[in-house]
Amino acid sequence: MKQDEQIRLVRQLIHQLDTGTNLDAGVVLRNPANAYTCRDRAAQEWETFFQKQPQMVGMSGDLPENGSFLTREDWGVKILATRDKHGKFRAFLNGCRHRGVQVESAERGKRTRFMCPFHAWTYSSEGELVAIPKADHFGNIDKSCHGLIELPAVEKYGVLLVHPDPGGEIDAERLLEGLGPDFDSWGFQDYSYVGSDVYDMPLNWKLAIDTFGETYHFSSLHKNTLFPIFHGNVQCFDHWERNHRMILCMRDIDEMRERPESEWNVREGGFPVYYLFPNVVFNVGRHSITVVRVYPDPQTPGRSVSQVSFYYDPNELGNPTLAGTPQQFFETFASIIRDEDYAAASLSQKSAESGLQDWFLFGRNEPTLHHYHNTYRRELGLPPLEAMPS
Question: How far apart are CA 369 and CA 206, in angstroms?
Fold first, then answer.
């Protein structure tokens, strides 16, 4: 992020602190509670957002070297992602062209050959069919026409994007609109993968996303965890057509503000949180990035699965000044996001499912939630959320 932009954002946070103000969307919106429970809505979201749109499957650090691979099955399509012998990111349907059995069952690793466990048909990291046992017995097969089914794949600003449709197109600049320059400046492509976690929770996927959209709750829900570290109810917010950026306010800003503006680092006084439509949240610390990809259960609106991946600046791995080991960081993140945020949101889910509450409210100080839900509604062809009558 350019220094003048960092200064602008830090000034905005300091102004809010000094004036006791926050962002003001100017209106309170009403979001129908059935947005989190309606099966028809859930089916429409699954098809529109996850079946017909490119998906983020990981970051460059998930494929750190030639021959690395990664498998995913988050939106109903088995994906095998590879970095081939030339360093190119590629993606395929993880299914043998013989009888469809997946050719790789491990989550990640390194190999240059993928062998189907059923009949040992073997493929390269470029997806080429390279071996058929007893080919003279099986029959005449043109190997060049029976490689793994390749899917559109793009690597941009350290983000790995795959389209679930072999005939689909990926416009990376539009998908990453507004976020790319920041990702590039933070060097996302250089961060190393250090671990992952899965939170399978009884709440709609949008409720999970909502928890990342404001700091109004920090002084209550996170009073013993985040509130000692962050000033609650203070944040910056910039949005584009579908994506947005928040800067949360860390208490370290109290010391940083005493230094010359030329020395300000927004990642010391603030905490950038980026939202990539429709379901990805990037939490950017001083030396780490935590990526949360939230997926719905298309059959059960009240269930979602969050895939959480952790990445560290490779120059800081092993640095004794970092707070604890990566494993300790994973546990701390889970104790806050899963055990506090998601636990509270699961109670919201129960209220929605009761049928007794018609609306959930998004306050004037919660513009990020306005943006989330009006973006979803626009993409689904629905009208914007209504303002609460004054």
Answer: 10
For residue 145, the enclosing domain spans: 55-169
Q: Is the pTM of this model over 0.85?
A: yes
Rounded Cα gap, residues 152 and 160, in angstroms: 11
Rounded Cα–Cα distance for residues 314 and 61 (Å): 10
The DSSP H or E segment spanning 290 is: strand 288-297
Residue ending a domain, among 109, 141, 169, is 169
Q: For residue 82, give the amino acid letter.
A: T
Contact at 8 Å (CB) between 112 and 87? no
Structure tokens at 328: 């300790």
Q: Examine residue 228 and say whether the peptide bond preceding it is cis (omega within 30 degrees of 0).
A: no
Report how many domains make up the chain: 2
CB 220 within 8 A of CB 242: no
Report pLDDT digits (tens) over 58-78.
Answer: 999 999 999 999 999 998 899
Taking residue 117's Cβ as centre, other Cβ atoms within 10 Å add up to 12
Q: Point out the domain boundary residue: 116, 141, 169.
A: 169
